[in-house]
Amino acid sequence: MSSWSPEQKQSPVGWDSHLSRILFLLLLFVVSAQGVTPNPDACLVSHSGNGSSVSCQPPARIPHYFPADTVYLAVEFFNLTQLPANTLQGIPNLQELHLSSNQLEDLSAKFLLPVPQLKVLDLTRNALTRLPPGLFQVSAALHTLVLKENQLKVLEASWLHSLKALRHLDLSGNQLQTLPPGLLASFTDLLILDLGNNQLQTLPPDLLSGPLRLERLHLEGNRLQELGEGLLVRQPKLRYLFLNDNRLATVAAGAFRGLQKLDMLDLSNNLLTTVPEGLWMSLGKAAGNMKDGFDLSGNPWICDQKLDDLYEWLVANEDKMFFRNDTRCAGPKALKGQMLLAVARSP
Fold it and tell me: Using omega within 30 degrees of 0 as the cis cutoff, is the peptide bond preceding 332 cis?
């Protein structure tokens, strides 16, 4: 682990690094085929009418300076723990910045000041535990922020409030246990929200009160125990909903009301034994819904008359059902182990 050092070579580890090295060598082959002798210690630089693209991966050495017209910059797999505050000085037109698969522990609040046109920031697989207040103060153009697989345990709404153009926010694979009220209040254009694989037990009631066009919501791999009435009520354009691998035992009758455009629903591997009447019919019939399927497997369903509403919906949508052999009754005793769909079809 190290801070930014243009003289230092780092050896990547793991499958991602191995794949990265293969891709790097392929790029070198392409460059060689075009009659240019590549330098393995240099970053790959390509030029176009829009500006320069720079990609640095081991064994390349990170340069002190980048082309002034750089619009794309990737510095990945170096295991860097720190970056100087002036790292991006001199490349004001930068639009995409990829710093994944390092070990960055923190960032300076001034880090993004030189790049006000930045649209994409990828910080996947680092060691960030917090974000400095003011980091995004000039990042009004940012539409994609990926903080996947860091070590965030808390999140403050003020850290993100200036990102009003954000369309894709990925906070998956962190250690978040709670979310602050008003976190997404200013994100009216948000299309994709990924909170999967954290440690969330509850969600603030106003979590989705800001976004008006959300299409994809990932909540899988948390510790959620219930899904209430109001969480999704303002998301009529939602198409993909992932709630699998939680501890859901209760879903409110109106939880899915208004989700007429839902193409995929994953409720697998929860603790659902029954659901309230009316829940499924609010999702509509098969003709215009669930074109990408649904999954109810891995739940301990009690197959009695309380599931009549679900039975009817299953029969109408059975061609969209995933893992029907793994969607079975846990009770009553006479039906234990039987496929839920078979029970639904029975007279």
Answer: yes
Q: Specify the DSSP element, H or E, that contains 17.
A: helix 14-33
Residue 45: predicted pLDDT? 95
How far is 317 from 232, CA to CA, in rounded Å? 22
Structure tokens at 210: 């800001």
Token pair 């995933």 in the structure block, residue: 322
**Closest to 225 in 3D by CA, of 207, 197, 248:** 248
The pLDDT value recorded for residue 329 is 98
**Per-residue pLDDT band at 161 (split at 50, 70, 90):** confident
Q: Give every CB contact of residue 223 below 8 A, 6+ residues apart in sequence.
A: 199, 200, 201, 246, 247
Whether the predicted pLDDT of 7 surpasses 70 = no
Q: What is the pTM of this model?
A: 0.88
Say which residue the tokens 């030029």 belong to. Answer: 47
**Cα-Cα end-to-end distance for the chain:** 65
When comparing pLDDT for 287 and 276, which is higher?
Answer: 276
Residues 6+ apart with CB under 8 A from 169: 145, 160, 184, 187, 190, 192, 193, 194
